[in-house]
Amino acid sequence: MMSLAFQVGPVQFNQPVWLVLLPIAWVLTIWIGRRTLSGMGTTLRRVSLVVRLIVIALLVAAVAEPHFRREAKAVAVTVLLDASRSEQGSGGNMQKRAEEYIVAAGKGAREGDQIGVVTAARDAYVQALPGPVGRPLDVQFVGATDATNLEQAVRLGMAVMGQEAAHRLLIISDGNETAGSLLSAAKAAKAAGVPIDVLPSRFKLDREVIFDRLLVPATARQNENITLRAVITATRPTTGRLTLTLGGEPIDLNGDEPGVAKAVTLDAGTNVFPVPITVPSSGPQRFEAVFEPDGTQTTASGDTLAENNRALGVTFVGGDGRVLVLVSSDRPDEADGLVAVLKAARLTVEKRSAASGFTGLDDLSRYEGVVMANTSAYDFNQQQQEELRAYVHDLGGGLLVIGGPESFGAGGWIGSPLADALPIKLDPPQKRQMPRGALALIMHSCEIPNGNYWGRRTGEAAVDALSARDYIGALESDWTAGSAAWVLPMSEKGDGAAAKRAFRSMRFGDTQSFVQMMEMALAALQKIPAGQKHVIIISDGDPAAPPDALIQQYIASRISVSTVGVGMHRNPADLAKMRRMAQLLGGNFHEIDPGGKMDSLPQIFIKEAQTVKRSLIWEGEPFSPKIVGGLVDTLRGVNAVPPITGYVVAAERAGLAQVVLRGTEDDPVMAQWQYGLGRVVAFTSDLGGRWAQPWPAWAQYKPFWEQVTRWAMRPAGSPNIRVTTEDLGEQTRVVVEALDDQGDRLNFLRWDARAVRPDLSAETLNLRQVGPGRYETLVDTSLAGTFTLSMGWTQFDSGTEGNVSAAPKRGNVQAAVTRPFADEFRALRDNAPLLEQVAKETNGRVLTGDPAKDELWSRANVRVPVSLQAMWLGVALAAIALFLADVAVRRVRIDVVAMAKAVRRGFGRGAAATGQPIENLKAARDKAKKRMEEAARERGSASPAARALASEADKRVKFEATPDELKAARGAKAVTDFKPVAAPVVDKSKATTQGEGEEQGMSRLMKAKRRAKDEIEDQ
Known about the structure:
Elements: E1 6-8, E2 11-13, H1 21-36, H2 42-63, E3 66-71, E4 74-82, H3 94-105, E5 114-120, E6 124-132, H4 150-159, E7 165-173, H5 182-191, E8 196-200, E9 209-215, E10 219-221, E11 225-234, E12 238-246, E13 249-251, E14 262-266, E15 269-278, E16 283-293, E17 310-318, E18 322-327, H6 336-344, E19 348-353, H7 361-364, E20 369-373, H8 382-393, E21 398-402, E22 424-425, E23 437-443, H9 451-465, E24 471-478, E25 483-492, H10 497-504, H11 515-526, E26 532-539, H12 548-556, E27 559-566, H13 572-584, E28 589-592, H14 601-609, E29 617-623, E30 626-627, E31 644-648, E32 651-652, E33 658-662, E34 668-675, E35 678-683, H15 701-712, E36 721-727, E37 731-738, E38 750-756, E39 762-765, E40 768-771, E41 774-780, E42 785-795, E43 809-819, H16 832-841, H17 851-854, E44 866-870, H18 872-892, H19 896-915, H20 917-941, H21 944-960, H22 963-976, H23 988-991, H24 995-1018
Parallel strand pairs: 4-5, 4-7, 7-8, 10-17, 18-19, 18-20, 20-21, 21-35, 23-24, 23-26, 26-27, 27-28
Antiparallel strand pairs: 1-2, 2-3, 3-44, 5-6, 9-11, 11-15, 12-13, 12-14, 12-16, 16-17, 22-32, 24-25, 29-31, 30-33, 33-34, 34-35, 36-37, 37-41, 38-39, 38-42, 40-41, 42-43
Helix pairs in contact: 1-2, 2-18, 4-5, 5-16, 9-10, 9-14, 20-22, 20-24, 21-24
């Protein structure tokens, strides 16, 4: 039953409709009570009726859902502070000015008022929950500042509101939002009754140049002439120079004039400069254009911000298939035979050292395939490994991974991002009985910036590098106990979840000596049944070195130790100490300077953790891998392969992965699968330098590796498929026009497309046909940077789709969308009208910026929060208690008046007893004795008949008296030592003649007895 709430004082009834029944119930109760209670005394009847009415009232109140209502008195203001880069245009120092404003405005706050802070940039972050006014409000991490999301800030500000105060929001911003919708959030605030005050940060750029975009064709042919268009907007006429580079190399725009930059003059408004060039090579061609205004620091120019003076563009140029071969810098010639085979197959091959690697995802996308020949994970940083995975999964690139002693699990790839892309599991199968490894980490205090963060990262990296059956443990110094402790006792890694939780709980205490922790690590490792045992010590080098006896125990137990020095302050003694421990105990010494590149620290731990890896390499007598899996393109025409003498042990991956060559115990030697848009082949033996020496002389060596590589490569782009893009703000429309070699439009193509964002996250694209041979999709391009698009297409001949004997045509087209700078730097003035509209929408105010006038904690238009505490249970219990009392009154026949007298008498006796107990007792005895003597005299003077009647009346009084009255009478007799007076002999013959006198005597006797009784009761 729903009803409007009804309030009586501090009590609120949520279902007040039930209260209407109260008068009706009372009338019925009175009417029924007059009939059912008629046999009771007047006082008792009234008391019982009142109790019934109260019970009925309480029951009705309980059903009406009573709540105790408490209203807040204070006001909490949450400041939404714009921390984005666009605030530079408003004069800078927004944070400092806002803090000064809040401090000054705090003088007008009342007792209990609160203040909180939320920063708004690309993401919103809570800097301070609403709390007492006057406390320090330090703004810490604000995230990426290349965007402004005021909607998220408003919603987060509403999320942190409590119930102890009314709430207001204050936006301090220029109003230029680049993400989200502030008006949408304002509607939510209005519905919640939260007014939004605004303090606009006003600015206007009178001298500004914005390089809007560099228009380049998305695709082109090699040696084709294309025209680039530079679009530049200026607020006033300005002169400057335009520079254009291709792949970092400058393009001469100045003709016969000196220099390569072209002098240009900008008019107020939009200016377009065409730049014709010839595309020199295939692959993605990256263009960058920069406008430099004339003027110096002492001579005013026509520009204010430098961040928006450049633009980027990428054109994908079709050509022959390109392959990138990555080799170890220690073995640069290892893949020369494979390179020669691929070049003979008319593929464009580029060999690079894994150490130099590649410069990014756009660099990788130049190639249709990548070959990694016996390369370890230590040759690539985490970013490069993520890019390799995205290159295959999201851009459709091909990957061929060839084994060797430094590849797969033996090369530290276990737990890496690339491990998920491989068609094999790098952990060997459980059925293989192989020796385990054990790793102990000694984590000393990291006295470096964000030392605890990097300490946890290193520990987690070491965990990821181990296999599931290896052992791991970690020691640290306990600050509170002043001794070493196992934060992670030595145990089997398993899935690594428990180990990572332990590292996240570490406190990284300081210690004075390595001895205790090294002794504990030694004792634990000696008990572990592992083939290889290793210790990694990370420290600043301050603790005392272990004694030679302890070092000899490590050597005798065949436990190696590596040391990692961080924040060592270049102390020669500490450096020598850490280096000596590593040298004596067969490990490595790594040093990172206090200002060094800390992201290399996890890689060090990964590499060191691999020293305890199980022997993942199988070597033995020559055997020929068994061909399985039926007919596959990679082994087309191959009936048998030459023998090998070794390979890296791995496990078969379930699902779509296909093993085509097997080794001993059915270990996978070669496997392949489709991973996302790309294909991956893993060959766990090598190219012939150590394990596959007979292979280079094999007659099918060249066709084998050619067809394996071509199967993995991304399909070549079609020169007849063109891609154009259209900027729509935070989104970009991508248009694909598909033609065949005869110029006919390709309809009903099936697309599998993805876009890789600058942060390496991927978005699946849905290309839909909108016309003959024309396909469109929208891409979210809100981030600054390059968005790489890979769009694979499949064409089934008419009537052949679903016919397995028909080979469909496949192809791939790539494109890129670039946003060289964030939209933050496109605003030329503030957007105060948006802020004013928000204030009007939510009944807020537009503040002046004067703390004394603005009344930041104003009570106007705020919705006072109310807390309700349910009372129905207490009310119902009270009704039950009174109901039981009502039953007692009616059934037990309690004399309320007598009870009241008894209570009063009891209190009187108690007071007398505490006053003069002996005197009061004597007075009561004398008074009772006197009354009894009077009664005896009256009884003696009466006629015999009167005395007989008095005796009978006395018996009747005693019989009808209450137990309390008899008890009081007996008490009075005991106190006065009362003895009955002998009654005189009555002459029966005279009894009848004295009737009238006898009645008078009897009346007097009864009155005396009643007076005595009343006095006894009064005692």
